[in-house]
Write a structure and sequence with these properties.
With 302 residues, the chain is of the alpha/beta class. Helix content is 44%, strand content 13%. It has a single domain, classed as Homocysteine-binding-like domain (TIM Barrel, Alpha-Beta Barrel), CATH 3.20.20.330. The N and C termini lie close together (10 Å). InterPro entries: BHMT-like, HCY_dom, HCY_dom_sf.
Length: 302
């Protein structure tokens, strides 16, 4: 397990914990506008907890959250600010290398594959890539619900000269938790997503923003595909702590309740199962805070 790379956790609830205001529609973008120092503190706290990769707070810097007009007028500056805050926090570390992952979110809404617009997606991804590029080490297309969203990310970063990771969000309804075939929220099979990853040139395939109970099966499926295709692609997981079913609701419609049972000890036990199944990149998503990451690192790396 000593080769595991530790990611950060979820940004939004750590922003709230440290005193930032979050409300819809801006959500975590509001902290960049009103309280950028708190964004920096969240990055610093995750690094102090043991994160080796911090993710830019650019997830909500899309028209879905900040509106079309603001995206066009203020978006580039806010995207650069998100990149700079993460870069400064990473570069302040002197005892180890901390990487910055540039978050490239689902442009037309989380958990909403039906809203994907292939004819428009590059118009928005290009703005994110151009303005984050000076600050990031790797690209992270995250919380993607369908393979076409991942392909759009691949195209957007193709000429950037930097590696990219792709992270899909999984169906996590009762059928999935009970042992059904692992699928993306679009209904596409994880097996097909893994095959796409092999052909895409991605350095890593991850699964995020789904319940921890469904992650192991997805890791096992991806690992099986990669072995069959003799592909050397890392696998990662960063689960959320959402309570109840989320499959019928967009991830960013409001503040979901989080599970009381998913404390740092319980989450680290899930993380051990993912590592044993083949995951080498592990962190947390919504509701997984710095305390979880600290325990996770201690458990996985000693």
């Amino acid at each position: 397990m000593n080769t595991t790379r530790i990611l950060d956790g979820g940004m939004s609830r750590e922003l709230l914990r440290l005193g930032a205001e979050l409300k819809q529609p801006e959500w975590s973008a509001l902290a960049l506008i009103n309280a950028p120092d708190i964004v920096r503190r969240v990055h610093q706290e995750f690094i102090a907890a043991g994160s080796e990769v911090v993710t830019t707070n650019s997830y909500a810097l899309v028209p879905f959250h900040i509106g079309e007009d603001r995206f066009q007028t203020e978006g580039p500056a806010l995207i650069r600010l998100a990149g700079r805050l993460a870069r400064e926090a990473a570069d302040a570390v002197t005892d180890r290398k901390v990487l910055v992952a540039g978050s490239l979110p689902p442009i037309f809404g989380s958990y909403e594959p039906q809203n994907f617009q292939p004819s428009r997606v590059q118009d928005y991804l290009e703005v994110l890539v151009e303005n984050l590029s000076p600050f990031v080490d790797i690209w992270l297309g995250e919380t993607l619900s369908l393979i076409a969203e991942a392909e759009a990310v691949r195209k957007a970063v193709a000429t950037s000269g930097k590696p990219f990771w792709i992270s899909f969000t999984l169906a996590d309804d009762e059928a999935a938790i009970s042992g059904g075939e692992p699928k993306l929220r679009s209904g596409e099979k994880v097996e097909d997503a893994a095959s796409w990853a092999v052909s895409s040139g991605a350095e890593a395939l991850l699964f995020n923003c789904s319940k921890p109970e469904v992650m192991q099966a997805a890791v096992e499926t991806a690992a099986r595909v990669f072995r069959k295709m003799d592909a050397h692609i890392e696998i990662g997981v960063y689960a959320n702590a959402f309570e109840g079913e989320t499959g019928d609701a967009a991830a960013n419609e409001g503040l979901h309740d989080t599970r009381a049972d998913l404390n740092d000890d319980a989450y680290s036990r899930y993380a051990c199962s993912w590592a044993e199944a083949g995951a080498t990149i592990i962190g947390g998503c919504c509701g997984i805070g710095a305390a979880h990451i600290h325990r996770l690192r201690k458990t996985l790396l000693g």
